[in-house]
Amino acid sequence: MNDALDSLRELADACGIAREYHDIWGGHHPTSDSARRDLLAAMHFDMARDPAELLAALQALPNAAPPEIAHRCFQPAVLDDDGRIWGLSLQLYSLRSRRNWGSGDFTDLAALVDFVAAAGGAFIGLNPLHALFPDNPAHISPYSPSHRAFLNVLYIDVAAVPEFAACNAARSRLASTDFQARLAALRAAEVVDYVGVAQAKFEMLPLLFEQFKQTGDKKAFAAWRKERGTALENHARYEALQAHFRKTQDAWGWPAWPAEYHDPGSPAVAAFATKHADSVSYYAWLQWLADTQLAAVAARARACGMGIGLYQDLAVGANSGGSEVWSWQNVFAIGNGGASTGAPPDELNLLGQDWGLPPFVPHRLQAVGYAPFVDILRANMKHAGALRIDHVMGLMRLFWVPPDTPASEGAYVHYPFDDMLGLVARESLRNACLVIGEDLGTVPEGFRERLFDAGVLSYHPLIFERYPDGQFRLPADMARQALVAASTHDLPTLAGFWRGIDLDVRTRLMLFPSDELRQRLITERGWDRGRLLWALEREGLLPTGVSKDPAALPELPISVIAAIHAFLARSPAMLLVVQPEDCFGLTEQINVPGTLEDQHPNWQRKLPLPIEDWDKTEGFQRCINALAAER
Predict the structure, then answer these.
(1) Where are the alpha helices (DSSP H) in 434-514?
(2) Cα separation of 42 and 47, whole Å?
(3) Which member of 87, 101, 196, 446 has the lowest number of beta carbons within 10 Å of its beta carbon?
């Protein structure tokens, strides 16, 4: 029995499964043998076999050739000589305009490039643009994508597709009274009606594909399709299969398809692709449209002289039922019930978190030369001047949660950090793309130092910029190799933070693990209001007529919001990000972690004004003027 347990633990060690972890309170959590078995099973080991045999077989595998790596990421010339720049960070779907179809699209993004460049901004940060699920537009989280190397086709501007002008059917449909009424309702909605937007676009796009087959640039499409290779073909086949099985069996993803279609290389999949070649081509064509429109926006940003241009976001994982996991099943931890990435217990999540996304299996990723990881890096850096890597600690380790198990009983799994970080640096140099690492949460000792040495920027929201006594850090003491921001999509807006709206939401949704913690955070928020005003006064930025007493400010005026941005702009940080939600004085945050869309309108809120009116908005002008005065 002891020999078997020893072998189990040796196998787990060899596969990177940590023997223990410590939570934020210093509590010790040894990894149980049950968790080891479950995580090894998720790594595709047959745990009915003797662990000693499995270990011997693993050790007998030939060593994978070390990848070509670099040691330091690209940094653009605009950051030379202590350069400091600012840009806007937004959720593309949230943009209103007088011409879009109810959610922001790539033409809106192009218009925003003109606006931000004219104001002196150097970049526009975006939510993940990854492919979601065209057959299920109600699946809206950009952090639970179908495939991270492909694009969300709902961002296509249908009227900008080259074939639109020549397609009488599409133009007639668009001009019809009922279709215009639908578009007007979609534009007027306070939140994005993803299903309605998808219905409108997918009513038109097949008409344009038929037009493309008659008059389109088929040679250019064929060349692009060939360049994207097997990855695109698998994705297009997945989309065609999923559309078919959604219609015939209401299948939610590839695990619900008939078994003969589970392997992308199976004869059944090949036969389907032959029989439904037109459908496969249609989904490849949609990706071409999206890629072409995004490329045009990136080119426009360069032409406008933006020092970075587009700043994209790479999600930490992919949905288990989506195209990416289907294409790389042997590399994801989906064996025998699978495992999910998550996080250990913390103050707001006493049981830990399970994010529901299968992680890469370290030794299997290494065995395929890190191909899927490199694919997603290249795809997301292709049109970007900067890339934010969500939960960048995943380059070193991820917290894995076994199935049907409390997240607190999960374990860290370690990755080949030197290789992973070196590949990021290599692709950064090849694509001339700055890298920002989202390093919030539980961070391993020495990790930030390694990122610093590799030229990766750290992520510094104002709410966490503190001295040990809790006071807000003054600008001169902030980091240079960093991105600073007033807030992020997962944190309260400035106006919401001031009023405690986020605490009210968590109370209403019963997200606090104890009333004692809720009361303590409410008390600390009161202190934070005073601390923020003190910091502004210390810098000489407290607006005239604004009291130092937070009780005299039940709401945060735009003058103080602009002053907070001036405060951050004084820092030596290379990048400063501004959220339009703050410039507009909005109180509701974009996403409340730990909630689902039926609890809170995550990833749905629209900005209050169409982009055509932003230049007339006092809040925007004040914030931009404050930035221009400081950097």
Answers:
(1) 447-453, 494-499, 501-508
(2) 10
(3) 446
